[in-house]
Every structure is written in C-alpha cells, then in structure tokens.
Amino acid sequence: MIKEAIYHKPVNQYAYSYDKNHLHIMLQAKRADLESVQLIFGDPYDFNGSQWNYHLKSMKKSGSSQSLDYWKIEIEPAFRRMRYGFLCQDKNGGVSYFTEKGHTDELPEQIGAYFCFPYLHEVDIFTAPSWVKDTIWYQIFPERFANGNPTWNPTGTLSWGEHKPTPDNFFGGDLQGVIDHLDYLVELGITGIYFCPIFKASSNHKYDTIDYFELDPQFGDKQTLRKLVRDCHKRGIRVMLDAVFNHSGFEFTPFQDVLKHGQKSKYKDWFHIWDFPIQTSPHPNYDAFGFVASMPKLNTTNPEVKDYLLRVGRYWIEEFDIDGWRLDVANEIDHTFWRAFRNEMKSIKPDLYILGEIWHDSMKWLQGDQFDAVMNYPLRESIIDFFAAGAIRADQFDDRLTDLLHMYPDNVQKVLFNLLDSHDTDRVLTLANGNKDRVKLMYVFLLSFIGTPCLYYGDEIGMAGGGDPECRACMEWDREKQDLELFTFVQNLIRIRKEEPAFGSDAAFKMIQADAEKNLLVYEKKNSKAHLVFIINNNDFEQKLNIVEMAGKQTRALFNEPAVNLHEDGTIKLPPYGFQCYQLL
Fold it and tell me: What CATH number should be reported for the domain holding residue 261?
C-alpha cells in the first residue's frame, strides 16, 4: 500500500455539504493501489461508555486518472455532525486506518484522532441559481453582432463586414441590432446572452472603461438597454453583463485626475502607483492589466474604490434587471472584495448568476462565498486538444476529464460555464482546421456534458477566424453565406438537451470506454429516470467497437444522423467522425 499517496483534507471538494441533509466525502489514492475503502463514521458525542459508536460504509471508486484513483461517498449524518476516518485495504490484504493523525494498523480509540465535520450549516452550502444549469448561453461581442441604428455609429464606422477586423476599427454593432435578431436566437434555442462590456469606453472591445455608470453611446441609450432586457425576458432569455473591476480605462476620470495632479490627487490611492511622476512608457510605473498602460489596475482594497464598484454592481441590477455578472480578470482581485460583492448583489437579486473569468483551478473562489461559477477553460482546452487538434489520445482525454470532475464539488460542476471559444481565442472551426465534422463532435460533447454551455456568436453558422482580432469579425447575416446545415445541427442538439434532462446537468457523467488505439469514446449520462449512452469516433475512418453494457438492451437513437446499427451483442460500426446517443429503454 502506497500510504503516502493516500490523501484527504476535511475541506473543499474532499468534504462538503451537498445539501441540507447530506455530506460528500472524497479520498484520493495511487491508481490501482487500493482494493476497497470504507468510511468509518459516527456522531462525535455518541458513546457507549468509553466506546465510540461508529459505522462502516463502503465508498465507491468514482474515477481513475493515470496516476490517481478517486473514492467518493454520500453520507447523511444523524445529527448533522460527524467524525470520520477511512479503512483502506489493498490487493494483497494489507489494511490501514487513515485518520487526521495519519496511518495506523489498528482503529484509533481516541475520538480526537478522526477527521471532523463539526456541523452541517445550511447557510454554508454552496448554492447557485437553479436556472443556470439548464441555460444555453450565447456570447455576443456587441460591436460586431449587428448594426441596428446607424445614427449611433462612432466616427469612422466601416461598412458591415466589408473589412477585416482590427484592434481599432469599428463596424457599428449596437443593442438595437441585438433586439432585431432576438427571434434568431430563440430559433437556435438560446436561453441566456453573455455580453462583452457595454459601458462607455474608447476601444471597440470596451474592456477599458471610462464611465461605469454610462452605456457606450455607440450601443444606444439606456432606454434601448431596458427594452432589450425586457424583450429577452419575454422570450425566456437571461441577460449577463461583463464587469471590468480589475482595471479601468486610461480615460477613467479618477485616473485622469491622478495624471493631472499627481500625489495631490484625491484619487492617487485608487490605483497601485509605484512612484511619481506617472510614466506610461516604455512600461507603466503602476500596476496594470499585464503591462498595458491604458488599463491601470484598480485598488479594490481602498474603501472608496470598493464602495464605487459595489454601487456599479447594484445600479445595473436595480435599474435594468440584469440576471448575471461576468467578472473580468477575476483572479487578480482580492477575495475580500468578492465576498462583499456577492453579499451585496445577492441581497438585491438572490438568483443572480456571478461568473468569474479564471482560467485555472478555481476552488478558492467556489466555496459559496464568492462566485457561482467560473469559465471552464480547462475543459475547453481538453476538448480542443482531443477533438480539434488531435494532440492527445482518448485515454488522455479521459484522464483530464477525471481530474476535472474531481476538481470541484458536484453541485459546483452543474453550473460551470463551459465554452469552446470566445473573444479571447481562435474560433472553433479554425482550431479544427476547417473540419466541420470535428466541430460537430465538439458540440455533441459540449452540449451533453455537465455544466452550462455557451456558444460564441457566429460559430453556429460556420464563422472562422484566428485569435484577436480575427475572432471578432462581423456576424454574417447573409443566409447564402451561412452554414445552415451546421445551424440546424446545433439547433437539434440544443433541442435534445432541453427535452432530455439526462442529456445535460441533471445526470451523472461516466466514461465507459476511452480507447487509446482506436480514439473512440463511450460515455453515459444517468439519473433515476433515464440512461443515455454516447458513442463518438474521433477518426476519419470507420471503426468497430463492442459495448458490453448495451448487449441485448432495447434502445432508442436520439440523433438523426447516418445510421449507426447496434447489434444484439452490443457491436457497433461507426462511420468516420460518426456518433450516436442511445437511450436505454
């Protein structure tokens, strides 16, 4: 037994309140080292004389990566509190009792040796808005979606789509253009819009805010925004705005005051300024987004800055009834600010969705006191590497998914913001080298995985483009230039996800096969009411496989794709880039 590889801490994804009655406990160990794990548990005050009354319950192996096994269990403590440990047994019959004090050969007698979950407080349970897990998001870069009112065009606006996008050109996209195409989004099946920033700024991307309380005039007026939100809500579409609180724009009034008055400015402590006078080149002598002098970093520990930004957050909720905040560069802002932000925003609108832009392991922000979710870039990278780039094998993809599925608590997984691309990345068709079949496989996986999926505007009609600025091209509204077959494909996937609850976040995900040599995936989504099995051939040639779990079962195919015949013995032939989902009846 590799005892030093056995790990547990009574915090985060290893021990947490899943709901008001249940705890989830997880243990990790070296792959294939342990034959079984039992949870030793009981109430810390339940004794028979000097003998602690404990119970044993077998844990289940919930997943295996190349190096680790994960063991999980759900427990309902009798009095909402629990002491616990683990009885580990290896393949050779070796036994170890693992508690907070380490490994012992015998069951510890002292209650203080065991891990402690002091009390299941309902207020401490991670809760996110219930509507999020069923939402299909659509990200809109406002300047490039549609020009609905040319009278709002900024000076120098170019003809729609007739020029390549650059970091500093404008095409006149606005909020009226979004209103004009809401029925298009309804037709696609969208139920949530995530807008890149719409506040007053000098750039086309608007991540350099000048005034946080003003709508950029090129996008329209506030009455237009009110109408947009109302029209979205009438269609069952939620609206999420982008907040850039990490940094402001160069023309932000407080920063301009610092530039003018230096150390005498009343706003000098609003920013992280190293020394005076201020310089912007060759590098700024103040903290900024990266080293971009035009985006000075805000000091969110300053009470005045904190109050200002909290007022910003409240204003757009109270005045326009938005449904969510996406928080830019969220990991570079202090946790104290985010705790205050959550308390303030949730007091106004309890079911507001708070989403952080973080590209890495985000457990510190997902403990129920800050964000509801983060943008799931680790999942995106794994999907792109396997399906689009062919940079990893099926078993390596499975390995990454296993680690991802054990990175956060189960109730967090259901509301993670899953995406394939965005305004910060190459478009998915470009990443797939123009191979639409690969793109389809990515959409199959994205929309059948746990979490809330997001499409980047125009991907559904086959728009391509490299990184910024190419990925920010004008939306193609000429139907003759749209890939309508791809649109219908994505539309049907969204429809199935809505019609079959097990297709989305209301069912557990489990990989059945991840064949390294054949590059095949077989996975299931299962809940108490439905059992779905997905088969994907990530190859440009036909493959044959056998799915023992489906042998002799009655099934119904959910996708109207070229026939994938399932034989009685569970044998299937998959065409190049073939896929299917079977519902077991």
Answer: 3.90.400.10
Kindly provide the residue ranges of all beta strands, DSSP E only, lying in 280-345, ordered along the sequence: 324-327
Number of residues in the chain: 585
DSSP string, 26-62: EEEEETTTEEEEEEEEE-TT-EETTEE--EEEE-EEE
Task: State if pTM tops 0.85.
Answer: yes
315 in helix, strand or coil? Answer: helix
User: Pick the catalytic residue: 216, 328, 372, 403?
Assistant: 328
Spatial separation of the C-alpha atoms in residues 451 and 439, rounded to whole Å: 19
Q: In the numeric block, which tokens belong to residue 77?
A: 């403590």
- Half-sphere exposure of residue 129: CA atoms within 13 angstroms, side-chain side: 22
Respond yes or no: is residue 357 known to be catalytic: yes
Q: How far is CA 188 from its chain centroid?
A: 21
What is the C-alpha separation between 472 and 193, in angstroms, rounded? Answer: 17
* Residue 88 β-bridge partners: 37, 96
21: pLDDT strictly greater than 90: yes
Give me the residue label for tokens 């002598």: 285
Domain count, the chain: 4
Asked about 328 being catalytic, the answer comes back as: yes
Sheet with 192-195: strands ordered across = 373-374, 353-356, 324-327, 238-243, 192-195, 137-140, 452-456, 417-419
Q: Both tokens of residue 202?
A: 């000098």
Residue 129 belongs to a domain: no
Distance CA 428, CA 493 (A): 17
CB 532 within 8 A of CB 543: no
Where a domain ends, among 297, 316, 331?
Answer: 297
In this prediction, residue 434 carries a pLDDT of: 98
The CATH number covering residue 336 comes to 3.20.20.80
SS3 category, 417: strand
DSSP H or E stretch at residue 131: none
d(CA 97, CA 102): 8
Encode pLDDT of 90-116 as tens digits: 999 999 999 999 999 999 999 999 999
Say how far apart CA 207 and CA 201 lie, in whole Å: 7
Confidence of residue 561 (pLDDT cuts 50, 70, 90): low
Q: Which is catalytic among the residues 90, 357, 459, 524?
A: 357
Identify whether 131 is part of a domain: no
Domain that holds residue 567: 508-584
CA atoms within 13 A on the CB side of 176: 14
The pLDDT of residue 476 is above 80: yes
